[in-house]
Amino acid sequence: MLILGSFDEYGNATVDITVAGASGSKIYRAIIDTGFSGFVALPLIDMIELGLSTQGAANVTLGNGSVISSLISTGAVTLGNQTESGTIILDDTSTDVLVGMALLREFKVALIVTNTAIVLYDEHETLEAIASFIGRAPQGQPNTAPSAST
Question: What percent of the chain has pLDDT over 70?
């Protein structure tokens, strides 16, 4: 699986996902937030359109260290051609859609970010490519001898 993302106008890494609930589904351009340990965070207002039902609340620690209580739900998320179920945080403080590290782990994808590209790549294929690269790399210790100046 190879999924291309993009940068938004603020420089955030993004990827398109589809979120489904009991009443339907919707495609979102989600920000990939590696500081977010959860699966997906959606604006609370989208809960109604998708038919997501709340399953309680959870304390969420924000990037600034503050803790808020947010409603949670379970929904189906599609990334590329794969669909997985996970906990969705229903956020009443933001209009951003976030995907976090739990989503990357559940879908078993590696995140590759360059200055021009965002790529989500199958974890197994990524590990094979890294192992192959390491296998071809020169063996031995790095040269730590002082360089001769001219």
Answer: 85
